[in-house]
Design goal:
Pfam families: Phos_pyr_kin. Keywords: ATP-binding, Kinase, Nucleotide-binding, Transferase. Helix content is about 40%, strand content about 20%. By secondary structure, the chain is of the alpha/beta class.
Amino acid sequence: MQNKQKRVAAIHDISCVGRCSLTVALPIISAAGFDTSVLPTAVLSTHTGGFTDFTYRDLTADIRPISDHWQSLKLEFDALYSGFLGSFEQIDLVASLFDRFRTETNLILVDPVMADHGELYSIYTPEMAKGMTTLCAKADIIVPNLTEAALLLDEPYIGEDYDQNYVEGLLLRLSQLGSPKVVVTGISFDPSKLGAATYDAKSRAFDYVFNDRVADYFHGTGDIFGSTLLAGLLSDFNLQEATQIAVDYTRECILKTVELQQEKRYGVCFERAIPFLIKRLGL
């Protein structure tokens, strides 16, 4: 057992209804045993997938004062974890926060949440997508899906028409943005399997992790994956091991949702699968 409880700063939006972003990151990382601080980037009445007429409050003006107060308290974080940002201005603000709280030993994970299935999310703009490369350059690990990877590299999204050579070239090009470790989600070379591809620039190692695919699309799984990946890394699993745990736990959450016949747009039933996660992390 470690003498010191690790502390994480999770920088995401809050969707009041719909399990994603902070309503996923906070309970998952906390369940893994870590002290989880939050910095909300926006507040929405629901998440943006499957809902219309949602309310949206941009919290850009709050980021600097919160960061200032944290710095005045001399807070230290073992990990900084950013996801959905609420405005173009927030990219520079979060980059500055990374600079303030970076240490020689902490971990910065950026999930460039902005698109899926070839389409930008409704609140995002192409300008924000290009600006996200600035934040990725400051990360120790980035976790884009295939759509976000194409946007970060200013390349066409090729859909499902890819092979292993393409994926490994993509990982290499993403690492050249500045992050030494890259995980690309939503990778499949077999219709029955789904998982992620990883690259570590230091060891020049590529890895793939998969599990059985569950048919259909479920909202919020990217946030579950990113939060679980971070929990695994902070629990001293290596990149491949932590990615496998994240793939397996995400699938377990989907299976619980199917079993309970839950309406998909509200996100997956990750709460029912937390015992699975705790067991996998060895807690």
